[in-house]
């Protein structure tokens, strides 16, 4: 998969989003071959976010892109799965950071596990670098910064349809300048739940661990992030400044 770095320009006030493109010709995906005119079926676009108003805002933008067809909106995992299962052809999913019952990591895990042919592009603000880093680790094929979405989304989708992955140059520079991630996968998981506002008890129930174990993990996280509170850990984690 070829990787393109791009500079970004315009701004639109949506939250961190993802664009997922599903391609159903494995030979073309593996060999990075562009689609021919005869098999270029316009992809359906499913817009998914926990807030319907965000779906509607993105939908109004997607509806202006002639290369795709606007599909249904999804606000939770069940409606997203339903929308995907009803569309055997090419599909693009515009995915918010959180659905009503899942965060970005869980949604990406589902797409990677159950829709292995998907190409994933994360759209995020610079202040949400933790989501960018996590998305790349989860197998995202590209990153689109938030200030790019208004004018560059059509071009980015075109690149993806042709088999090209996209990463903005500033993300590549930041990632290349970082040291190895000091946080473990479990610590990332717990921090993600902290960002979602879960209590220690709720985190322990979600992960099947004792509250004492969660407290142990939090102590280790605070030490690694050089903070002494949940708020400090959340702020540093979301900004990616650790």
TrEMBL record:
Protein name: Transcriptional regulatory protein DevR (DosR)
GO molecular function: DNA binding
InterPro entries: CheY-like_superfamily, Sig_transdc_resp-reg_C-effctor, Tscrpt_reg_LuxR_C
SUPFAM superfamilies: C-terminal effector domain of the bipartite response regulators, CheY-like
Domain HTH luxR-type: 176-241
SMART domains assigned: HTH_LUXR
UniProt entry tagged with the keyword Transferase: no
Keywords, sorted A to Z: DNA-binding, Transcription, Transcription regulation
GO biological process, one term: regulation of DNA-templated transcription
Coiled-coil ranges from the UniProt annotation: none
Record-linked Pfam families: GerE
């Amino acid at each position: 998969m070829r990787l393109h770095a791009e500079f970004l320009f315009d701004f639109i006030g949506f939250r961190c989003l993802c664009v997922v493109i599903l391609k159903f010709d494995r030979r073309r995906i593996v060999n990075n071959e562009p689609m021919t005119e005869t098999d270029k079926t316009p992809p359906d676009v499913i817009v998914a976010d926990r807030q319907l108003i965000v779906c509607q805002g993105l939908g109004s933008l997607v509806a202006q892109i002639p290369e795709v067809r606007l599909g249904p909106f999804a606000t939770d995992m069940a409606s997203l799965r339903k929308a995907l299962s009803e569309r055997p052809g090419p599909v693009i999913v515009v995915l918010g950071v959180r659905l009503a019952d899942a965060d970005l990591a869980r949604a990406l895990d589902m797409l990677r596990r159950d829709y292995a042919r998907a190409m994933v592009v994360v759209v995020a603000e610079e202040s949400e670098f933790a989501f960018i880093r996590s998305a790349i680790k989860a197998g995202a094929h590209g990153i689109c910064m938030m200030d790019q979405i208004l004018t560059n989304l059509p071009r980015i989708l075109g690149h993806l349809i042709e088999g090209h992955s996209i990463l903005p140059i500033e993300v590549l520079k930041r990632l290349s300048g970082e040291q190895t991630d000091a946080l473990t996968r479990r610590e990332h998981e717990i921090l993600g739940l902290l960002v979602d506002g879960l209590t220690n008890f709720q985190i322990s129930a979600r992960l099947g661990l004792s509250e004492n174990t969660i407290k142990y993990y939090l102590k280790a996280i605070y030490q690694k992030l050089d903070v002494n509170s949940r708020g400090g850990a959340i702020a540093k984690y979301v900004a990616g400044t650790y």
